[in-house]
Design a protein that fits this description.
Blueprint (H helix, E strand, L loop, with lengths): L1 E2 L2 E2 L6 H21 L7 H13 L6 H16 L2 H4 L1 E2 H11 L1 H6 L4 H13 L4 E3 L15 E3 L6 E4 L1 E3 L3
Antiparallel strand pairs: 1-2, 3-6, 4-7, 5-6
Length: 162
């Protein structure tokens, strides 16, 4: 390891060791006085979200689609009020992500699992909030609409800002 342009130990004279330890103690002093500097974790958190939903090799396309759907399509279709059938949601996903839905295994269930995990990471959103008394899993918050025997699965994603 090279410090001050010299190899530690071999090339250091007494003056170099003094500079080396002074620098180290200055760093420790700064840490004790100011603590760790604050870091913006937004990029790190987004990469973790992408990895957990899309997988290690994810490129963020699915997560970006989810963010866009929540901020635009959900509101334009009043899905935060009326909900949306899972089939219709998946059809919208397929339309916008044809490659992922046909070649990367993004079927309806993988989309729902990923979307539910996405919503869980966002404190301002809730998945079928009218079913929250049933539990906190996607299965316990299942919402079916229609007469018995003809029921269709629905989802309603709400925001505290709606």
């Amino acid at each position: 390891m090279t410090i001050l342009g010299k190899k530690i130990g071999d090339d250091f004279d007494e003056n170099d060791w003094i500079k080396y330890y002074n620098y180290g103690f200055q760093c420790i002093q700064k840490y004790l006085m100011k603590g760790l500097s604050k870091q913006n974790l937004a990029n790190y958190n987004k990469k973790n979200l992408i990895a957990s939903i899309e997988g290690i090799n994810g490129n963020g396309q699915i997560v970006d689609w989810m963010e866009d759907w929540i901020s635009t399509t959900r509101l334009e279709g009043n899905y935060q009020i009326d909900g949306i059938s899972i089939d219709k949601l998946y059809t919208q996903f397929q339309r916008d992500n044809i490659l992922e839905s046909t070649t990367q295994g993004w079927d309806k269930f993988k989309l729902l699992d990923g979307f539910f995990d996405f919503i869980k990471t966002k404190q301002e959103y809730d998945w079928n909030p009218h079913k929250s008394d049933k539990g906190s899993t996607r299965a316990s918050r299942r919402w079916r609409v229609g007469p018995k025997g003809e029921q269709v699965d629905y989802v309603k994603i709400t925001s505290v800002n709606d």
